[in-house]
Amino acid sequence: MRTFSDLFRNVMQIAYVTDDLDRATAYFESTLGTVTCRTTYKSSLGGVVVVDGETAEEWVIDVALVNAGATNLEIIRPVSGSVEMYQNAIRPGAPATFHHLGFLVDDFDDASAIVAATGKTWSQRGTLEGAMRFGYVDMTAELGHYVEIMELQPSAARMFAKLEAASNEP
């Protein structure tokens, strides 16, 4: 990787925020026709999250994951703590609001160096032990959305592969 655009080479996720996860998953499943979403309520994701350079004492979200082929669709409902990045993007009453695109990288440290070289910082970053390292760059002024960069560990890669396989079943 050499440039910021190199971080965009492996898109794997389109993510949305909502104020009602059950309504959003019902919309995805019934109206958009996805398979059943894998939903987790009140999750801190079991890791460390840093928001605007400070370790979050509390960071709790509801999250639903489902795939459409190789593309993961994520729906996030902010619950409590340092979740303003999600909360501030919600359109009340809408089933879901576009929030970010997620891209896979092989080396999060290399991606971090590219982010820093462009003068950007991680708005939020975290480590989910045994699963992934991730970070969000706020590109809302330039592109209208956040960019999430993820380095998956084998357990997370297997989980996303299962979601993809489920979406491809007849």
Fold and architecture overview:
This protein is α+β, with helices and mostly antiparallel strands. It has a single domain (4-168), classed as 2,3-Dihydroxybiphenyl 1,2-Dioxygenase, domain 1 (Roll). It contains four helices and ten strands; from the N terminus they run βαβββββαβαβββα. It has a ten-stranded mixed β-sheet, sandwiched between helices. Strand 3 (47-51) and strand 4 (54-55) form a beta hairpin. It is globular, with a radius of gyration of 15 Å.
Give the SSE map.
Elements: E1 11-17, H1 21-31, E2 38-43, E3 47-51, E4 54-55, E5 59-68, E6 71-81, H2 84-87, E7 97-104, H3 108-117, E8 124-128, E9 132-139, E10 145-152, H4 154-168
Parallel strand pairs: 1-6, 7-10
Antiparallel strand pairs: 1-7, 2-5, 3-4, 3-8, 5-6, 8-9, 9-10
Distance between the termini: 38 Å
As a percent range, the share of helical residues equals 10-25%
Low-confidence stretches: none
Mean pLDDT: 94
Properties at a glance:
ten-stranded mixed β-sheet; alpha+beta; 170 residues
Entry summary:
The chain is of the alpha+beta class and 170 residues long. It is 24% helix and 41% strand.
